[in-house]
Amino acid sequence: MENMMQGNKIRRVAATRMNERSSRSHTIFRIILESKDANQKDGPVHISYLNLMDLAGSERVSLTKAAGERLKEGANINKSLSVLGNVIRQLSEGKEFISYRDSKLTRLLSQALGGNAKSLIIGNIRPMIHREVADGLERLWNVRVNCIWEADESSRHGEVYIFDHVFKQECTNSDVYGSVVKPLVDSFMEGFNATIFAYGQTSSGKTHTILGNKTDPGLFQLVSNQLFQHVADQVDKRYLIRCSYIEIYNEKINDLLDKSNQGLTIRKISKEMCCLMQGKLS
User: For 258-268, what is each residue's pLDDT tens digit?
Assistant: First the structure.
């Protein structure tokens, strides 16, 4: 968590009309876990990684009133999220060509999304804030286990959205963690790779879900707690834990664990487009 807190100090954030501390970049915190049998000096080493991602929210200029540098940032955020949507759609349709290379974000996510990867889409509803109510953005929501019905209050007709799971407004980050994140972390500690990313419109509460606060710890803190508790409990194994923390800002990749915030490059190291970034590991 110290590495993450260090990185968050230099991550790009700025105020918009929609959010006083709006994320202006996508971030990827990667945990690499190496494990081996403590009783076998030359035994096999098992390596797995877990990506924890906080994606900047999609923006509408009519709502954010962005101009100048904020407008440029918003355009790059929207473009990369649009490419991510295209990639997910191409994968779901079984397309032969997947446009990973159209953005830095999808290049870095190519391993997590492609191949034998399985994706789960979770909906998390937050309470309306005063400004949204004042702007007439109130909605009537009906929520079931995996379904959100957005109804028109006058006609009772509206859109239905299907997810793998939906969390109501009163749910805490711990509820989200226990239901959908903990099983992924369990798999990660057993040697499987996993990626968790928060995605949605700006000011939708993604960063709160990821980082949380003193009374409602975020997913990053809960992952850290589970990981180190697991390592402490497994006395018959030896572990090495490494991490990296990067941001994608205006299509440039920066190392958040380096105070100089130096730019990084992506290297293709296999036919499967496994990407290697040069930078600081902690």
Answer: 876 666 776 66
| Residue 207 is labelled as binding a ligand | yes
3-state helix, strand, coil in the chain (%, to 5): 35, 30, 40
Q: Is 204 annotated as a binding residue?
A: yes
Q: Burial of 163 by CB count in 10 Å (0-12 exposed, 13-18 middle, 19+ buried)?
A: middle
The answer to whether 201 is a known ligand-binding residue is yes
* 48 among annotated binding-site residues: no
Q: Could you tell me which of 45, 34, 32, 35 has the C-alpha nearest to residue 242? A: 32
Average pLDDT over residues 136-148: 69
> Is 244 assigned a ligand-binding role in the annotation?
no
User: At residue 8, does pLDDT exceed 60?
Assistant: yes
Question: What pLDDT score was predicted for residue 73?
Answer: 87
263 is in an annotated binding site: no
In whole angstroms, how far apart are CA 104 and each of 34, 72, 244, 275? 27, 16, 17, 11
Is 202 marked as a binding-site residue?
A: yes
Contact 163, 125 (CB under 8 A): no
User: Per the annotation, does 136 bind a ligand?
Assistant: no
* Number of neighbours of residue 227 by Cβ within 10 angstroms: 18
Quote the Cα angle for 105-201-100, to 5°.
Answer: 20
**CA 188 to chain CA mean position, Å:** 16
Average confidence (pLDDT) over 124-143: 70
Would you say the pTM of this structure is higher than 0.70?
yes
* CA 236 to centroid of chain Cα atoms: 32
Within 10 Å of residue 177's Cβ, how many Cβ atoms?
Answer: 23
